[in-house]
Amino acid sequence: MSISPVFPLIVGMLAISFAPIFVRYSNAPVSVQGMYRMLFTFILMLPFGVKQLPGIKAISRKDWLLLLAAGFFLALHFLLWMASLTYTSIASSTILLALEPVFVMVGAFLLFKDKPRKFAVIGMIVALIGAISIGSGDITLSQRAFFGDSLSFFGALAVAVNMLIAKQILKRVSSFLYSFIVFGVTTVCFAIYNVATSTPMSGYADREWIVFLLLAIVPTVFGHMIFNWLLKYVKPTTISMSVLAEPVGASLLGMLLFREMVTGFQLIGGAFVIAGLILYMRAEKQTHPVEVENEALSA
């Protein structure tokens, strides 16, 4: 079956836009939110991955090390970025994630000699200008906001490393098995962090468990898992560019749900993001449609 990557990209972009909203609705420590987000995703994947579990035996020692590294950097990304939402606004936090494609593009060029097309670079620049505009009305010079912005910045760097590792492993490991193992490793990383910092992992209200489950289903299953699957067919920078849509959706949701008002200038920035995305994806358009593997995708 042949499909265009556009539809799953749109689904993934919409799904990840809800991540900061769910994080804001929870009063639990971000390390606990991250742990249960990954754990519930891991459990949801179990019924669909039984047939693929024998494939674990074929994974080399080198790939296991890469999988462990991917899980660590994904945990680091979630920990830093989710924590940033405590110190700065949704718009400011998500805007700094827009730096991810810059890190990925540079990393892909240095590691894989993946030279981007001219108009792809122009599209990325346009989208970055728009993304920066979205957060410009909210970023302040206060120490608290600067700390939150710094957390989001390093969170973007961590997820870029995770994506570059994933691109290599997915040449030899199915996307489902990759996600299954990496999410498991990420859960363990969070558990170790919570034990080391004496963070309570139980005793939370029912409302919190609902938020944990929503974090697993919406931005993880319908967001990160779809992106992991698409990495087998498109460039890592293409996936990173799709993440640029998150500041648009998240800022609008933040305005509606938390009264974090978005200025007209920021709305214009959103238009630049969309224009940049369209320009980039047209430049990087695949010659052939995506051939979907015969594997269980829990989305």
Automatic annotation (TrEMBL):
Membrane-crossing segments per the record: 7-23, 35-53, 65-84, 90-112, 119-139, 145-165, 177-197, 209-231, 238-258, 264-281
Keyword set includes Cell membrane: no
Subcellular location, record wording: Endomembrane system
InterPro entries, per the entry: EamA_dom (IPR000620), EmrE-like (IPR037185)
Any Pfam family hit: EamA
Domain EamA: 9-134, 147-280
SUPFAM superfamilies assigned to the protein according to its UniProt record, in alphabetical order: Multidrug resistance efflux transporter EmrE (SSF103481)
UniProt keyword list: Membrane, Transmembrane, Transmembrane helix
Superkingdom assignment: Bacteria
Membrane topology: Multi-pass membrane protein
Family: Belongs to the EamA transporter family.
Name of the protein this chain belongs to: DMT family transporter
Organism, scientific name: Paenibacillus lignilyticus
